[in-house]
Design brief:
single chain, six-stranded mixed β-sheet, Spore Coat Polysaccharide Biosynthesis Protein SpsA, Chain A, two-stranded antiparallel sheet, 247 residues, 6 helices, alpha/beta
Length: 247
Amino acid sequence: MEILGLIIARGGSQRVPHKNIKPLGGRPLLAYTVEAARGSRYITRVIVSTDSEATAQVAIQEGAEAPFRRPAEISQSHSTELEAVEHTLSWLREHERYEPDLVALLRPTTPFRKSETIDAAIELLLKDPSAHCVRTVKLCSEHPHKMWVMEREGQRIRSFVPLEHKLPEAHTLAYHLLPIVYVQNASMDILRPSNIWQLRSTTGTEVIPLVMDEMESVDINSAVDFLLAEIIMGQRTHSDQKSQFQK
């Protein structure tokens, strides 16, 4: 079985310049996802889709492939993952006659994701032929029942979740009294290529959840996120060094 590890990493970033190759713990951010993909027991090939030559070179140095450059028109801030995945699969089909059985869509902004977690997600989809996708989620820390939207030019707010769909006074209740809610953590999707060709979607409609913990779910999108990730990285390095010393 051919399982493609696909990492979409465009060169531009609105909040953090060159985010995907910005150093974290002395390595490019992208390197951690490449390493996790290469450590998978199931992924047979790791490709980085990027419009950036610098990002492509980092990908190759870290052991991934970058056989093409993604066209600029589908590498903008408003471009979709569907466009990037479709381009990759089309390019591989046309230039190499390569068609994977599954695609592990791995986002480069979650550096603490483990190879074992990737494998667990792949196994879930392999065991359920009726599912279109596995999507990773985490417990929602900001509950939607406590969210509001502005109206009347900021003079009023109203509940984001319609009141008729909420418990009475839900916005004042403790979290443990509210329904358990999960949010996608931007880490990965395991999907079938048929989703792209037949459903025009990466996830489809039959989606299996894989719950990840807070540490693996850390998602880097801002300068503050980088600072927090550096702290976590430093603590992990210190803990590993201490463990080796005790041995």
